[in-house]
Amino acid sequence: MSKLVWIDGQRVPLAQAKISVFDHGLLYGDGVFEGLRQYNGGIFRPQEHLDRLFDSARAIRLEIPYSASELLRAMEETLAANALQESYIRLVVTRGVGLLGISPANCQRPSVFIITDTIQMYPAELYRTGMAIITASTVRTAPNALSPKIKSLNYLNNILAKWEAIDAGVPEAVMLNHLGYVCECTGDNIFIVRRGELLTPPPESGLLMGITRGVVLELAGKAGIPTRQTNLLRSDLYTADECFLTGSGAEVIAVTSIDKRPIGPGKVGPITQQLSAAFHHYARHG
Ligand code: PMP
To answer: For the residues 35-57, what does the mean pLDDT come to?
Structure first.
């Protein structure tokens, strides 16, 4: 674990990196966050993560007390202070300390902290073999209730689906949206390959617009793989030739079965392999 955490403008030892029990981020999940990766010493797509953070904050009327460039510098300085080259960065903005009661109006100042650490979302072996997932019965939050585009500290919807995965003995679950279309997984976006075409649910399906999702779409475009963002049904997953998930934590990981039904031949597919290799090359070498 990294030794120093950046918290409200200061780098402090881990043991002293503390947030008040009156912080509304803790009391109500009132806050936003980002999970970023560092490859070869450089932060991957920092501007996109910061844009999403500021959009999320704006959507919940949270004013971040730092500029994007100040936050970028703080992340870089924390990475350097912890002598990290390849890591995972968690940037969190909470509503800050307030009274009991949900009103954000009496919270004085948002708390901001940065943790730099390593992350292993899934066991290394699954990156070679692909993994089994399930479809959760927990429906993804309806976007007209609380938009999943907001990367907020309230992940209970995803956590309930994650429990279903845990109960089924698999690492991840795919969630359908309020209309019954495939949306995303609890912490990753989902792609399928069908007859050489790369398909993924569209923004309006109510998903988090993953940065990795966007990069994979770009890389597929560059590789001449046709891509389409389109509504998918559960049956489209079952009849896919290949399936994989993307996320800053997960990177690119193949799915070889869903609800115990093998995807294609039940092995990591060639386009998945190609895009995973392209992603890792791009992340480290541009
Ligand atoms: N969907 C959800 C619900 C997520 O939490 C995440 C990030 N962990 C993603 C998708 C993937 O987004 P990104 O590629 O930006 O990490």
So the answer is: 98
